[in-house]
Amino acid sequence: MRLVFMGSPEFAIPALQLLLINGHRLAAVYTRPDKPAGRGRAMIAPPVKAAALSWDLPVIQVSGFKKPEAVEQLAGLKPEAVVVAAFGQILPPAVLEIPSYGCLNIHPSLLPKYRGPAPVVATILAGDEMAGVSVMRLDAGMDTGPIFSQAQVPVLAQDTASSLTARLFQIGARMLLEVLAFLPSGSLIPGPQNAAAASYSREITREDGRIDWKLTTREIWRRVRAYQPWPEAYTTWRGKQLKIIEAWPLERRASAGPGRVVSLEPTEGGLKASFGVGTGDGVLGVLKVQFEGKRALSAEEFLRGQRDFLGTTLE
Predict the structure, then answer these.
(1) Per the domain annotation, does 311 fall within a domain?
(2) Which of 45, 168, 256, 290 could potentially form a cystine with 260 if both were Cys, beta carbons 3.0 to 4.6 Å apart?
(3) What was the pLDDT predicted at 199?
């Protein structure tokens, strides 16, 4: 089929790659504009742009489709379908009406559960045992369109938002190929969502990453995993930010008080956590941290450089 692909982050690349491998014709790849990043504020291209250029695909970078000329440019490409994978923008009706087979979207949840911008984060925060991915046809609402295909996978104890999202999009990419194969014949009819069962994820802010040590151990552990790679779970020590990159819940160990740093035996909880932090109901074993302005370290390495850390109370 003649397609237009829309996506930006790295986990959207497998879908683009599979489309090429399986003989689909990419009229263009749409992605977000380059943006400044890092201390030098150098302009960084979206990962999908770099991948598309490496495969000699035409790239179009847009911040939206509010301008008529942007819609006209897309219409001029004459796509049979538009494939969307983490593009990060709601497509207006004028865009949805362009392709003859519609706009297909890979959404990393079991719709109508967790519509919205952060479904994988919501999945981990809720402590769900299963996560899912849906291939749907976009309509004018937020993730409200009919569903072609769904699949579910278990949420692993070590899963972060980053690892789970990547896994779901890899599965979604294969599902997308199957859906595209049936579209021309009209033999695959998408089913409507049950609006009464819908739930919504919300936009994540940097402040969400700030740890409240009065929460339960399991709640904080989920936040550490859900907020990887952004905004990351963090606390404050000596007025500087301390990121908790990897941790494990020790709920059976009595808390020394929320935020209190305690020493742990090397094998406590079955993991190499050299120290833990008191929570509202136990202790969070810490495996990996990053102090402000420093590189990420194992908990053991961090303690060797900060010998007065044990016994202090984190904000």
Answers:
(1) no
(2) 256
(3) 98
182 CA to centre of own chain: 29
Same domain, 212 and 130: no
- Nearest Cα residue to 103 out of 129, 74, 132, 130: 74
User: Do the beta carbons of residue 81 and residue 74 sit within 8 Å?
Assistant: no
**pLDDT number for residue 210:** 98
Calculated CA dihedral for residues 101, 103, 107, 110, nearest 10 degrees: -40
Residues 165 and 36 in one domain: yes
Angle at 286 (CA atoms; ends 284, 287), nearest 5 degrees? 145
Three-state DSSP at 84 gives strand
Q: Are 132 and 171 in contact (CB under 8 A)?
A: no
Q: What band does 268 get if pLDDT is binned at 50, 70 and 90?
A: low
Residue 270 has pLDDT above 70, yes or no: no
Categorise residue 163: left if φ over 0, alpha if ψ from -120 to 50, beta otherwise. alpha
Statement to judge: residues 59 and 138 lie in one domain: yes
One domain, residues 129 and 236: no
Q: Which of these, 67, 69, 51, lies nearest to 5 by C-alpha position?
A: 51
Beta strands in 86-129 (DSSP E): 103-107
Same domain for 161 and 231, yes or no, is no
57-112 tens-digit pLDDT: 999 999 999 999 999 999 999 999 999 999 988 899 999 999 999 999 999 999 99
- Residue 315 corresponds to which tokens in the numbers above? 């904000």
Tens of pLDDT along 23-57?
999 999 999 999 887 777 789 999 999 999 999 99
Which CATH number characterizes residue 167's domain? Answer: 3.40.50.170
The pLDDT of residue 123 is 98
Mean per-residue pLDDT over the chain, rounded: 95
Q: Say which residues have a Cβ less than 8 Å from residue 2's Cβ, sequence separation at least 6.
A: 24, 25, 27, 78, 79, 80
Residue 293 domain flag: yes
C-beta separation of 195 from 115 below 8 A: no
Q: Which DSSP symbol is given to 209?
A: G
